[in-house]
């Protein structure tokens, strides 16, 4: 079974550039429910990182993504899978499923 590490970087406050978008925590909860149903043959492992509060025990990779958010190069919530960028800001279903289909579903 394929294993995929899903990390959502977010904050309590909604991204100022993402008007009417769900909160980071809502996006995290939505992804957990969606991915389990849509891809039952993939073993997803989920992590939520509040980049304003969770500052200890982060990998260099996590720090790089957080730095990009803080420098306004990326928006939050930011979704990565196996340390690869997937989507940021107003996260939509189609780019998520396309990424999974291209990288993790056996062709």
UniProtKB/TrEMBL annotation:
Pfam families linked to this entry: DUF1462
Question: Which Gene3D superfamilies does the annotation name?
Answer: Hypothetical protein sa0798
What InterPro entries does this protein map onto?
DUF1462, Thioredoxin-like_sf, YuzD-like_sp
Which residues lie in coiled coils? none
Entry superkingdom: Bacteria
Q: What is this protein called?
A: Disulfide oxidoreductase
Name the source organism. Answer: Staphylococcus simulans UMC-CNS-990
């Amino acid at each position: 079974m394929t294993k995929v590490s899903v990390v959502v970087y977010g904050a309590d406050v909604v991204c100022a550039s993402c008007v009417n978008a769900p909160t980071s925590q809502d996006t995290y909860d939505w992804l957990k429910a969606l991915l389990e149903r849509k891809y039952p043959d993939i073993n997803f492992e989920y992590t939520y990182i509040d980049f304003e509060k969770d500052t200890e025990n982060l990998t260099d990779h996590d720090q790089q993504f957080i730095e990009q958010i803080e420098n306004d190069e990326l928006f939050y919530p930011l979704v990565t899978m196996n340390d690869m960028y997937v989507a940021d800001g107003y996260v939509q279903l189609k780019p998520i499923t396309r990424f999974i289909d291209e990288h993790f579903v056996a062709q």
